[in-house]
Amino acid sequence: MELKIDRLTKQYKNKIAVDRLSFTLEKGVTGLLGANGAGKTTLMRMICGILMPTSGDITYNGTAVSEESYRDVLGYLPQDFGYYPEFSGRDFLMYFSALKGLDKKAAKARCDELLEIVSLSDVAKKKIKTYSGGMKQRLGIAQALINRPQVLILDEPTAGLDPKERVRFRNLIEEIGKHSIVLLSTHIVSDIEHIADRVIMMRSGQIIWQGPWRDEDGSLEDFYLKEFEEED
């Protein structure tokens, strides 16, 4: 299980959003840290095959991200995911299950399981337009998990979650990272401090630091702030 990013670049006219990045992700949770505008979302959209890179390659176990077989193992939660306000939460997940190719019986069982995991079972039949921001975010997390992805890409997934929900979410991601590649982008260090096996820090489209992180290494937040102070 290996997701390889090789000399990846994305340029818009005179602006380089992602600048010759190279790294390899394996099973576990990788935290992607950086301020807004660092290039995190652009990088993730290229990893998901939504944006074409200007140059460089992205492969999963040797397969290009443009291949159908890669999309079958991919789960993605964008920073602003779209939803159908007139759909119920259950209908929304059933719709995405169909897109992922699950038959009706398997889809129903998986949706019930995910609604329980993200604590939306009691509002599953209510329209999404009645959901709070945090509830919509939990629904987005559920849709990203429908196909039990081997590669899970999460862009600012804890936005709108209250402290209790954040803890529940971190526990869930830590568990998923035991058997999948998880890349979690955030500018909130506490979201990943105790669950990330590895950390990548970005600034202005470049990696300024990357490596494994363990609790015994000390405070990730202090280290993060120090790195950015040095850059300043």
UniProtKB/TrEMBL annotation:
One of its GO terms (molecular function) is ATP hydrolysis activity. Signal peptide: none annotated. This is ABC transporter ATP-binding protein. Pfam families: ABC_tran. Belongs to the ABC transporter superfamily. Residues 3-229 form the ABC transporter domain. PANTHER family: ABC TRANSPORTER, ATP-BINDING PROTEIN (PTHR43335). Keywords: ATP-binding, Nucleotide-binding, Transport. It comes from Butyrivibrio fibrisolvens. The keyword Ion transport does not apply. The keyword ATP-binding applies. It comes from the Bacteria. The lineage of its organism: Bacteria, Bacillati, Bacillota, Clostridia, Lachnospirales. CDD domains: ABC_drug_resistance_like (cd03264).
